[in-house]
Design brief:
- It comes from Parambassis ranga.
- Its main location: membrane.
- By secondary structure, the chain is mostly helical.
- It has a domain of 76 residues.
- 69% of the residues lie in helices and 2% in strands.
- It is built from 12 helices and 2 strands; from the N terminus they run ααααααααββαααα.
- It has a two-stranded antiparallel sheet with strand order 1-2.
Length: 383
């Protein structure tokens, strides 16, 4: 089993274990409350039917009808209209951001069909926006950390030289310097906490939620889980209503972007942890024979490891097991787009991958499908 497959199987097993542990914990925490709630609801139904002499079947029919009306946005308490322009704008925002609170859903067949195509394009565009935001955040943090590192060098005595010698000394000192991804994760984590705490202060005062409920809502919304049990800006009237709705949108936008970036950085750390675990296991990590990749007209042997493939194609060197730098993180974040552009270029100019031909039934294709087909061709040729 090569390193990529071993990493995939290990991650799948750990996720399954994580799910089992989570299910056990949540079941222990929430199941007793569910049982008490069912007993209380049954008692309330019995008391109501006895007191008002209502047929239980007729009452159940009325409750089902209310559930249908609830799905269309009808509530006992007075809430804002769901499908006026502002309500619809809030809805499409939850669609394209993949939050999907669920408190508003299309009820017509035309609306459901339109949502499929609208969400397909909107979600893809929003994910692209999040990726571009992540690249800019990483670039900004890299510049900030580089500036801080330069300041430390000056304080350590580099600045006592002449200006030309100082510039040369700083370049030599910075040549091998790499900002740690742990610092990036820490900064993004602090930014996410600050945004969540600030937003929770706003929500607890405007929505009359407890602060814990407000923090819970912020995580559910910012991470795009979107349960829908708590949803902000749904009452018909608020104090300073326009300012609150603007602040609500800005907090959700900033929170989603920061949490998305944080998740990406955490995934890099998880991958580093998996590599460390695999390093402790008796699994061979050398490059399998027969694997080749074209680079600037030449052929070179590459490992199946994703980080090594990225380094050889885009950086021109192998990683040496060191902590991944921000620059390497940015490169790996652009792998899919770079492969897509490479495939488009090779298809347009009938590049080296055309040599596989159609002998295995896989056409070259363009874009992600072309990449997948070419990978299937390579695998078949290796066999």
């Amino acid at each position: 089993m090569n390193e990529d497959n071993a990493r995939f199987c290990l991650l799948a097993g750990l996720i399954l274990l994580y799910l089992l542990c989570g299910a056990a914990i949540f079941s222990a925490l929430e199941h007793p409350f569910e049982i008490r709630a069912r007993l209380l609801w049954k008692q309330q139904l019995d008391n109501f039917t006895r007191r008002y002499r209502v047929n239980l079947g007729a009452l159940h029919t009325l409750l089902r009808q209310y559930e249908e009306a609830n799905g269309a946005g009808i509530r006992v308490d007075t809430l804002r209209p769901r499908w006026d322009f502002s309500g619809a704008f809030y809805f499409v925002g939850t669609v394209v951001s993949t939050i999907g609170f669920g408190m508003t859903t299309p009820a017509t067949i035309a609306g459901k069909i339109f949502l499929i195509f609208y969400g397909l394009i909107g979600c893809a565009a929003t994910i692209l926006f999040f990726n571009l935001f992540l690249e800019r955040i990483i670039t900004m943090l890299a510049y900030i950390m580089r500036w801080c590192h330069e300041r430390r060098l000056r304080c350590a005595g580099v600045g006592v030289m002449s200006s030309r010698e100082e510039s040369s000394g700083e370049e030599d000192s910075l040549e091998g310097w790499k900002p740690s991804v742990y610092y990036v994760m820490l900064i993004l984590g602090v930014a996410s906490v600050v945004i969540a705490c600030s937003a929770s202060t706003l929500y607890s005062s405007m929505e009359n939620w407890s602060y814990v409920d407000s923090l819970y809502f912020c995580f559910v919304a910012f991470s795009t889980i979107g349960f829908g049990d708590l949803v902000s800006s749904q009452r018909q009237q608020y104090e300073s209503q326009e300012a609150y709705r603007l602040g609500n949108c800005l907090f959700i936008l900033m929170g989603v972007c920061c949490i998305y970036s944080l998740f990406n950085v955490i995934s890099i750390v998880i991958k580093q942890t998996l590599n460390w675990i695999l390093g402790k296991l008796p699994i061979s990590s050398h490059c399998p024979a027969g694997r080749h990749r074209y680079k600037d007209g030449s052929v070179e042997t590459v490992c199946d490891s994703e980080t090594e493939a990225v380094a050889e194609v885009y950086v021109g060197r192998r990683l040496s097991g060191e902590m991944i730098s921000v620059n390497e993180f940015m490169v790996s974040n652009k792998v899919s787009l770079a492969l897509l552009q490479k495939q488009l270029s090779e298809t347009a100019h009938q590049g080296p991958r055309q040599s596989y031909g159609h002998q295995n039934g896989f056409s070259g294709g363009v874009g992600a499908l072309g990449i997948m087909n070419n990978r299937l061709q390579e695998t078949s040729v290796e066999r």
